Amino acid sequence: MTASSVWWTCIPSPCPGTRRPCASRRWAQQPAFSQPASNPPACTTSPPSVPMPALAGSSTASPRLGWLNRMTQFKDKAGKNRENHSAGLYVYPNLMAADILAFHATRVPVGEDQRQHIELTNDIAQKFNHDMGVEFFPQVEAFIPPAAARVMSLRDGSKKMSKSDPSEQSRIVLTDTADDIALKIRRAKTDSEPLPSEMEGLSERPEARNLVSIYAAMSDETPAAVLSRFSGQGFGPFKNALADLLVERLAPVASETQRLLQDEAHLLSVLRAGAERANSISEPLVREAERLVGFLR
After folding, report:
1. Which CATH superfamily includes the segment(s) 23-146+263-293?
2. Residues recognised as catalytic
3. pLDDT, tens digit, for every residue of 116-154?
4. C-alpha torsion angle, residues 20, 170, 115, 7 (rounded to 10)
């Protein structure tokens, strides 16, 4: 069986001047997940619930420190301030693994930067199976899209586009207006050279390669096809074309996102229904994992 799961783990940042999470930030990601869920049996959106944290205890005990120390995402985010970061960031890959294993998911859509987390999930599953003498948890395959598997920052082509980047100009947000998108693309970092005719010409030009990759993904073309059309042109015309394309593709999503953000009752109903369905799938599996470990209920 092929399955995939998404655990909505976003902890919203506080409103300015307070320690309370902003309601707008709390719901900011939910509408994006809700839109493809128009057919509930095919797509379930659920917040964290009881079975996943219960399994997280076992998944936290299994990994070796060496496994977690190799996680490049923690290294990137922590930087030189490793000792000042929360344990939650350090053990986040364990929680991700628990979410996947709680559903016996076998194929999980992730970005290229999450591949290492899927490998850790398999390590945890193999160790559990070995220690318990069973074949309980299946192997998990990372489903990585062929195009734009890792979208880079608009301000630094060597860094991943991230909502935690302090610069709003570094990313496209699903609630951005057409003017926001156009302005961010115009301000995106590039170089003074024209676009090449071959992909090899982008090997040492990360910002240019990023914009070409975004265009290719949004237009369902290959990067080579994009270059064949824009070869020899400067970034002015290309950025205008990219901005128009992004507005065309993302404007309906942004409009629907804004509409859903105004209907908190609907969002809650989607989450509650999703939680019930997710729990009905995961809870029996988590109970069996606990029985194998020797937990009593």
Report:
1. HUPs (3.40.50.620)
2. 77, 160, 163
3. 999 999 999 999 999 999 999 999 999 987 777 789 999
4. 30
